[in-house]
Amino acid sequence: MSHMTVSENATLADVGEFGLIDALTGLFTPGEQVLVGPGDDAALVAFPGNRVLVSTDLHVDTRHFRRDWASALEIGHRVAAANLSDINAMGGRATALTVGLAAPADLPVSWALDLARGIAEEAALVGACVVGGDLTAADQVMVAVTVLGTADQPVRRSGARPGDLVALAGRQGWAAGGLAVLARGFRSPRALVEAYRRPEPPYAAGPEAAALGATAMIDVSDGLLADAGHIARASGVALDIRSADLEVPEPLRAVGAALGVDPMRFVLTGGDDHALVATYPAGTALPDTWTVVGAVVEGEAVTVDGAGYDGPPGHAHFGG
Amino acid sequence: MSHMTVSENATLADVGEFGLIDALTGLFTPGEQVLVGPGDDAALVAFPGNRVLVSTDLHVDTRHFRRDWASALEIGHRVAAANLSDINAMGGRATALTVGLAAPADLPVSWALDLARGIAEEAALVGACVVGGDLTAADQVMVAVTVLGTADQPVRRSGARPGDLVALAGRQGWAAGGLAVLARGFRSPRALVEAYRRPEPPYAAGPEAAALGATAMIDVSDGLLADAGHIARASGVALDIRSADLEVPEPLRAVGAALGVDPMRFVLTGGDDHALVATYPAGTALPDTWTVVGAVVEGEAVTVDGAGYDGPPGHAHFGG
């Protein structure tokens, strides 16, 4: 199939729905699992097993991303990472994504193409690819991503038992620190801003946790305490986090000092790094990927050093 | 799991993200194919084969639906039907859906719940169910639906060959007539308005076409001529539609007379009924489900009675 060439200054209105779909489709290289790719009524994807993991996330302009805080390429990486992380959090491997883009007619075509490139690049990190999608006009830019995946042994939120270890994989608090910096009009520390713009989920750690016998797992998207709370609620247990075992990296300390905020707050309540929180039977020998940061105990809810946390545990939509 | 009781007058802001998710989850009865349903990082769905069909559609308030033209329950049926029809158009059977809802905080909770009920009811018509989703705040109501399905023998758009029959299954033009009526502030003919509010895709006809050896298939969502054009382009052929073989039902004739429009225009360019257009080898014995309405010929593009059609073949986003 030949794909149209699009001027960098063109808008969606200039090229129209089908022109942009042609241009986008050319960016999505199908993997061998793709039997029918973009351009038909549905895509057809081969799966190694008879069970499919599926998860959907919506990403709304000015709420989940800001076009003046990150490039379209980075936003593509961000939205794909958020969805790929959901499969990671089940101990699975992502294989295919669909992407819906709703946007005003004056959106530059180049923005849409860069977004698609970022999504495709992030998906390629785990061997997944974009197999289909939809494109429509709307007042606000919104990206809807659905990811399909496979897991030999899915790890749910509900299996944590008193006595289990609580362990963390991946960076935690960096993206929240970057967001705090950007929200105040700064662009440094660079490491934190980059962590916000282009998170690096620990993609190897999810399947690793499943193989190690994790009893429960979740990825941190609402905040460490909020998401630990989802495990606690689903499992009918309490989780106690030991703050001394949480790393507070130097750039977060610098931001905390500059903004007059306890940097531990970013670590405890930040999302968007897509770290994994998992519980393991006591005595599980964990590789360096994982840091033990607490324990599962009888009860409900989440405590920090044995006490309730004074502050919101994470992000709430609708102010609810 | 217990589910919260929600006041009819409450808004999303009153109950918050997690409160509404709890209430919505209670509406989605998992079928036996659902191994992990809503409430974890991803759902897990069993499939009879090793191949999965997947398709995503976005539905934007004031563009794909209007809240003053149809109830939330009807809009739920509409958006689900559009997605289920994509699996139908591959000759497949839908098994699972994910639903993303983006909405302003002042949206009534009852509207969101009725939308979910409509989606669940429509999915149940084909034995599919909602297995997961996402909920977020946005300026505009938007519904993102992804449907998964299975097909023994997927029918693509690209297999039409000169000499094939072109056949149609399902109502065509009814929803477009209903839309024209609603757009002018009327509420009748009732049959057309109902067809717009709650389309009735010919769900049995898709798998039937696959079993009958259809060479190409698509569902009519952009308009009969526009979607026939997608088959023509993908197959490298031309399709000629014979207008005398297209039924123009009485209510469409009435609307045409009232509005001073040729009612055949609704049939040729209307979408939203989710009729199926398929091509079959000449001589295929077709059941009553299917009406032969034309032929595949050498060439490209779509003609009506051997001539080009004077007018837009269907709906274009972004004015492109």
What does this protein structure show overall?
The structure is a homodimer of 320-residue chains. Chain A contains nine helices and twelve strands. The first copy, chain A, has 320 residues and is of the alpha+beta class. Chain A folds into two domains: 12-150, 60s Ribosomal Protein L30, Chain: A, CATH 3.30.1330; 165-319, Phosphoribosyl-aminoimidazole Synthetase, Chain A, domain 2. In chain A, the strands form three sheets. A six-stranded mixed beta sheet of chain A has the order 8-10-7-11-9-12, sandwiched between helices. In chain A, α3 links the parallel β4 and β5 (129-137). In chain A, α1 (12-25) packs parallel to α3, α2 (72-88) runs parallel beside α3 (109-124) and α4 crosses α5. The model of chain A has no long low-confidence stretch (mean pLDDT 93). The interface between A and B is large, with 76 and 76 residues.
Q: Could you state the oligomeric state of the chains shown?
A: homodimer
Query: Which CATH architecture of the largest domain in chain A?
Result: Alpha-Beta Complex
- Low-pLDDT sequence parts of chain A: none
What's the helix count of chain A?
A: 9
Distance between the termini of chain A: 48 Å
Count of discrete domains of chain A: 2
CATH class of the largest domain in chain A: Alpha Beta
The fourth-level CATH homologous superfamily of the largest domain in chain A is PurM-like C-terminal domain
**Greatest interface:** A-B, 76 and 76 residues
Major sheet: arrangement of strands of chain A: 8-10-7-11-9-12
Question: Globular, elongated, flat, extended or rod-shaped: what is the shape of chain A?
Answer: globular
Helix content range of chain A? 25-40%
**What is the C-alpha radius of gyration of chain A, as a whole number of Å?**
20 Å
Beta strand % of chain A: 15-25%
Q: How would a crystallographer describe the biggest sheet of chain A? A: 6 strands, mixed
- How many E strands of chain A? 12
Order of helices and strands of chain A: HEEEHEHEEEHHHEHEHHEEE
- The CATH topology annotation of the largest domain in chain A reads as Phosphoribosyl-aminoimidazole Synthetase, Chain A, domain 2
Structural class of chain A: alpha+beta
Global mean pLDDT of chain A: 93
